[in-house]
Automatic annotation (TrEMBL):
Family matches, as PANTHER family: OXIDOREDUCTASE YYAE-RELATED, TRIMETHYLAMINE-N-OXIDE REDUCTASE
Keyword hit for Metal-binding: yes
Organism in which the protein naturally occurs: Candidatus Promineifilum breve
The protein's name in its UniProt record: Molybdopterin oxidoreductase
Annotated spans, Disordered: 593-621
Key words, A-Z: Iron, Iron-sulfur, Metal-binding, Molybdenum, Oxidoreductase
SUPFAM superfamilies in the cross-refs: ADC-like, Formate dehydrogenase/DMSO reductase, domains 1-3
Superkingdom of the organism of origin: Bacteria
Xref: InterPro entries: Asp_de-COase-like_dom_sf, MoPterin_dinucl-bd_dom, Mopterin_OxRdtase, Mopterin_OxRdtase_4Fe-4S_dom, Mopterin_OxRdtase_prok_CS, Prok_Mopterin_Oxidored, YoaE_C
Span of domain 4Fe-4S Mo/W bis-MGD-type: 21-83
Amino acid sequence: MIAPTPATDSPRDSYRATADTTLIRGACPHDCPDTCGTIVEVEVSEDGQRRAVAFYGDPNHPITNGWLCGKVRPYLDHVYHPDRLIHPLRRMGPKGSGEWARISWDEAIGEIGDRWRGIIAEHGAAAILPYSYSGTLGLVNMGVSSGRFWNRLGASQLDRAICGAAAEYAVEATLGARWAVPYADTAHAKVILIWGHNPASTAPHFMPFLKAAQRNGCTVVVIDPKRTRTARTADWHVAPRPGTDGALALGMAHVIISEGLHDEAYLAAHTVGWPELRARIMEFPPARAAEIAELPVEDVIRLARLYATSQPGLIKIADGLQRNHMGGQTVRAILALPALTGQYGVRGGGLAYSTSGYLKWDGEAVNKWHDCPPPARAVNMNRLGAALTGEAADPPIQSLFVFGSNPAAIAPNAALVHEGLRREDLFTVVHELFMTDTAEMADIVLPATSNLEAPDLHKGYGHTLLRYNHPAIAPLGESKSNWDVMRLLAAEMGFAEPWLHQDADAVIAEVLAATAARNPRLAGITLERLKREGQIALELDDGAPFADGRFPTPSGKIELYSQRLASDGHDPLPGYSGKFDDGRMDRRMDRRRLAGSSDISSGSRRDDGDPNDSRFDPGDALSLITPAAHHFVTSSLANGPSQLRGEGAPFVEIHPADAAARGIDHGMMVCVENGRGGVMLRAVVTDGVRPGVVASPKGRWSKLFGGRNVNWTTSDALGDFAGQSTFHSNRVWLRPVEE
Ligand SMILES: Nc1nc2c(c(=O)[nH]1)N[C@H]1C(S)=C(S)[C@@H](COP(=O)(O)OP(=O)(O)OC[C@H]3O[C@@H](n4cnc5c(=O)[nH]c(N)nc54)[C@H](O)[C@@H]3O)O[C@H]1N2
Ligand SMILES: Nc1nc2c(c(=O)[nH]1)N[C@H]1C(S)=C(S)[C@@H](COP(=O)(O)OP(=O)(O)OC[C@H]3O[C@@H](n4cnc5c(=O)[nH]c(N)nc54)[C@H](O)[C@@H]3O)O[C@H]1N2
Ligand code: SF4
Ligand SMILES: [Mo]
C-alpha cells in the first residue's frame, strides 16, 4: 500500500522532502496526551523497497508544532533496532531460559489453536486471558484488537484498571464527562495548579502553552512530593506527603469557605450536595489538613487564597496523582474546588484532565457484544500475579496472550507475576517487537509491527484532533500488526464473522460511521478525509467546557454528593480515609490468605501486614513513588540506546536527612525492599524529594539490570474506585549494600 504524501502547499510548509523521498503522515502511538502528528521521510529504491530515513514532528499539527519529545525523536533507531523480533519463535528450553527455535506463522497459529482447543474442552474459553494495554493507542490495534476476537472466543475479560480508572470514574461521576480546557485556553488562566502531574515529561507539548500563560502573568503552582522538571519551572512548588492530597484539597476548601471566597450563587445553581459537602469540609480545618499533608499551615492557607482570588483558576491533573489507595476520593476532593469558586465553564478556568469524553468510539462497533457469547468473568490486570497463582480459580487461567503490554516489567507485585509466568502448565503467547521481560517467559513469541508498518486511527486525550497513521514502510521481517494477528486467530478458531476479517481501513470506516451516527462532533469526518487531510479537529462548541452551565450527570449539575457513588458502595461525598500501604506483608502469606477468598475486588486485605518481620520497623519506613521516566514511555523505548543514555543507570532519589539516618551516601548501591520483594538501585541523595519520600522512575526492563525493577516492591492491592492500581502507595525500607 502506497500512502499519499501530505499536502505541500500549506502556509506553514517546512517539510524537508527531497526529490528522492516521499513524505508519509503518521501519529505517535504512545500513551501520551499529546498524540503528535509525525512525518516519516521514506526512500524508495529502484526495486520498490521502502526505507524510512527521517522522522520528525509535523509542522502543520497545531499541538506538535514541528517538534517531537526526546523519547520519540530517535524513533527510527527503535524501528530498525537490531533486536527487533522478525520471526515467530517457539520455546525450546525451560521457561525463561532464552532458548528458542524459529517457526513459521502457520506453525505458530496452528499450535496456539491446538492448545486453546484443548483448554476450552477441559476448562472453557474463560481459562484464556488476553492481556493488552498501551503499547499503541490506535483504534484498530488497541481498541478493536482487544475486543472483537476475544469476545467472540468467550475469553476472560481484562479489567484494564492499571492507569487512571479511579480518576475516570471520579470525573465522570462528578462532572458527567471527561471534557477539558484546551491547551490553548491556558493563556487565559491567572493561576494554574498542576497537581500531581509532570507535563514537562508526560505531556511535553503543554509546556509552551504553560510558559505563555506565565508570561501573561499567570502564577503556576506544582503540587508534587518530588521537585519534577515541571516543578522547576513553576512559581511555587508545594510538596505534600504522597496520598494526602484529598485532605489538602478539603483544607483549602475550608479556608475558601471560612474567608467567604466561595461563590454561593454558582453553588446553588450548578451543584447537588453543597450543604452536605460544606459539613464534610468543616471536618478539615487547615491545621488538620496541614498536619496530614505534612505542610506548614501557612502554605495551605496561602494556596487556598491564591487559588480562590486569582481567576480564571485552572487545575490540571493526570493519573499519577491517583495511583494510591485514596486516588478516587482525592480526585473528587480536588474537583470540588472549581465548583466552590465557580470556575467550571470559565474560559481558561476549571479542570484539565482528559479530553477523552468528547469522543467515545461506539462500543458495539468496536466490540460486537451482540454477536458474541455473554462476557466471561473479568480479571483485574493489577492482580495478574495473584490471578495466575490461584486467585482466578473458576476456571484457572491456562493460557495468557499478551500484546501491546509488558506485564513482567510494568505490573505491580512483580515477584508474584513472575511466579505465575513460570508455571509450566501456563501456555503463554507474547506478541511483541522486542524480547521483553514478558516475551522471555513465553511459549510462543510472535513478531509485531512498529507504528511505521501498519495503518491505524488515533485520537488524542490531551486535545481533540483525529489523525490517520499511514503505514510508511513494509512490515519488518515477518512481523504483523495486532489486528492482522487477530484475523489469523479468528480463522484458526473457525470464526467466519466478517467483522473478524475486515482490513484495518474497513474497521476504521465502520467504527467512524457507527460513532458519527450518535455523536455530532464527528459530523463529516470520514476515513477518506482523514487520509487526505492529516489531522481533523472534532466539531466542538466554541465555548469553554460546561460553559452553558449544564453537566451531563443524572441531575444536570455537578454532583458534589454523588448518588452513583452511594449506589456503588462508596462515600458519596469527597473525603479522606487515611489509608496507606503497610509494606510489611509477605506476598506468599497474602496469597495463602487469598486462597480461601473469592473476592478479588477488595484491596483491604493488605492492611494488617506481618508485624513480626524485624527487617521492617514501621518507624523507618519510607514512601516510594515511581513516577514516569523522562526518557521512556513506561517500558516502551526503555531498550533504546539514546533513551538509556539519557536516563542513566536505575536510581532512587532520597532526601539527605533520610540518607544520613541510614548511612547512605550519594552514588552508593542500596537495597529498596519490603515484604513483597526488593531491588538494588543507585542512591541519588537530593533535596529534590521531600523527607520521608523516595522516588524511582517506572519502566525499567528488569532483564537489563540484574533481573529486577521497582515493581518487585509495588503493591497489587486495589484502590478506592474502579479497581485502580496503587503503585504510589508503597512503603519500603532502604539500606546500603556492599558492591
Ligand atoms: N516521559 C514519559 N511520559 C509518559 C509516560 C512515561 O512513562 N514517561 N507514561 C504515560 C502514561 S502511561 C501516563 S498514565 C501518564 C502519566 O502522567 P503523569 O500523571 O503526569 O505522570 P506520573 O509521573 O505518573 O505522575 C505525576 C506526578 O505525580 C507525583 N505523585 C505521585 N504520588 C503523588 C501524590 O500522592 N500526590 C501528589 N500531589 N503527587 C503525586 C509524582 O511524583 C509525579 O511527578 O504519562 C504518560 N506519559
Ligand atoms: N511502578 C510503576 N509501574 C507502573 C506505573 C507506575 O506509575 N509505577 N504506571 C502504570 C501505567 S500508568 C501504565 S499505563 C502501564 C503501562 O504499561 P504497558 O501498557 O505494558 O506499556 P509499556 O510498558 O509501554 O509496554 C508496551 C509494550 O507493547 C509493545 N508494543 C508496542 N506497540 C505494539 C504493537 O503494535 N503490537 C504489539 N503486540 N506490541 C506492541 C512495546 O514493545 C512494549 O513492550 O504501566 C504501569 N506500571
Ligand atoms: S510521546 Fe507524546 S510528546 Fe512524544 S512524540 Fe509521542 S505524543 Fe508527542
Ligand atoms: Mo498510564
